[in-house]
Amino acid sequence: MKNEKNFISFITSIGLVFYGAFLLCATLFHLSDFRIYVTIFFGLYGALHLIDYFFPENKKEYTPLLSGVLGILFGGVGLFYNYVEDPKNFAMAILLFALLLCFIKLKKADYFHDRKSKFWLIEVASLIFFLLLSILISMNLNFSENVLFLILGFYSFFIGVFEFFETLFFQLTKGKLK
User: Fold this and answer.
1) Per-residue pLDDT at 32
2) For residues 118 and 178, is the Cβ–Cβ distance under 8 A?
């Protein structure tokens, strides 16, 4: 059961990496309407994490559920409110998303800390990395649409890569890093 859960987590992270790679190549395809791709990013992030929660039927850990709801919520807000138009609003949306996701990751780190597992250090490192990445991303949003595609592509790519290695490390240690 745990291997199936980790397999779904690998698929989730690889999906984010592929979407990031697609956005990095978006300038070659001359894509437009950046708002749609931001909404897809948040919706994809949410949907993949909801699949990660519901598919293996392991309801002990709520991190994928909360992350999924958060992504779907931000994607839904992006459908009705164009926060991408103004760089300040978009930066605030990215930072709010990162802050809320950091609280979710902090809860997961607390879960591992309570079980006397050193894996909580990996979760805190993930939290810090994600927060720093989000701050750096939100500071550079006053550029053309092509540069915004690259920034969102790197953001999605690095989130996927880091989640992949987090899951890989958990799989290799069997979650029993003492």
Assistant:
1) 77
2) yes
